[in-house]
């Protein structure tokens, strides 16, 4: 087990209206509403969670500058989950027991969200995952858990529908990382939708997260999947670049599609010019001309010195606004159960990544899916799919 002290990558980052982010266990000022921010800022998930955390902080600053929650500022208590389930669970516990947060938000992968969410559920503290997309997560964790993004079923269906209906592809290859709940679930829903739509998988293969060499899978693909028109790779960010590069280096030029685990600049950084023809189902296009999207891009760029790295920055941003909206409507802003009820009643909340409404007791919003393609090492908007 890693020592809890090592989780202080940013220390305990706290922001108050007009104050900077501090490191090393700073205490909040009197009267602030403590909101926990748990993100994997180091390790294999950092290319998703760092931008998401940045978006979360940006939103908190904007909300505080506009008067906070009915006049009370938000205080963000932040810890690094280290891409480690034990660290995520320990830090969720610390936020609740030591820092006395009334809600915990963050994390972009379901394995880590499950670890933290179960701690929150046991303490009856609302938990809102900013980027994890396992549609059964609230059922597995309990009635205090919510997704801010769509579920894996929705993005998998969008991938299948896009290649079936737009590209007219009927034969595919499926490669699945068997080590993650997210990746196995995404692959299962993709296969279901693709086959129901009349498609066929000519070969299915598997690997484990952080495998350095995919030559065995590529050999099998070249020998057995010559009829495939595309590759669906169900993977996570730290594998995305190496997989794409190794397939391209072996002469596989077919389109590759994946879910939001591939929404990472690591693909272009690692695969370079070989990162062409990669399609990603994700939560937003930062090229969207809407005022809401472009204001977010402008403000993020001004604060951090670079444009948002991916849609996860927008998810973190929207998650903070989701919490703020619920806090303003809550019958008792300091009561976690009242906040849970207010989150569940969210309806028509328009964000950068779509509109959030929780219907019929579900804690997973049904949102549209954006399809982006890597062109010249950058993500380019292709279409929006409503499965």
Task: Please give a structural write-up.
It is a single chain. The chain is α/β, with parallel strands linked by helices. The chain has 12 helices and 14 strands. A 7-stranded mixed β-sheet has the order 7-6-8-9-10-13-14, sandwiched between helices. The protein has a 5-stranded parallel β-sheet with strand order 2-1-3-4-5, sandwiched between helices. The radius of gyration is 20 Å and the shape is globular. The relative contact order is 0.13.
The proportion of strand residues reads 15-25%
Query: What spatial order of strands do you see in the largest sheet?
Result: 7-6-8-9-10-13-14
Largest β sheet strand count, sense and barrel closure: 7 strands, mixed
Name the CATH architecture of the largest domain.
3-Layer(aba) Sandwich
In whole angstroms, how far apart are the ends? 42 Å
Radius of gyration: 20 Å
Helical percentage: 40-55%
Spell the H/E element sequence.
EHEHEHEHEHEHEHEHEHEHHHEEEE
CATH superfamily of the largest domain: Response regulator
| Number of DSSP-assigned strands | 14
SS-derived structural category: alpha/beta
Q: What's the number of domains?
A: 2
Q: Regions with pLDDT < 50 over 5+ consecutive residues?
A: 1-30
The general outline is globular
What key attributes describe this structure?
globular; 2 domains; alpha/beta; 12 helices; Rossmann fold; about 20% strand; about 375 residues; disordered N terminus; 5-stranded parallel beta sheet
Explain the layout of strands and helices:
Blueprint: E1 33-39, H1 46-65, E2 74-80, H2 85-99, E3 104-106, H3 110-122, E4 127-129, H4 137-141, E5 145-147, H5 152-166, E6 171-177, H6 181-196, E7 200-207, H7 215-224, E8 230-234, H8 237-249, E9 256-258, H9 266-271, E10 278-282, H10 291-304, H11 311-329, H12 336-344, E11 349-351, E12 354-356, E13 369-375, E14 378-385
Parallel strand pairs: 1-2, 1-3, 3-4, 4-5, 6-7, 6-8, 8-9, 9-10
Antiparallel strand pairs: 10-13, 11-12, 13-14
Helix pairs in contact: 1-11, 2-3, 5-6, 11-12
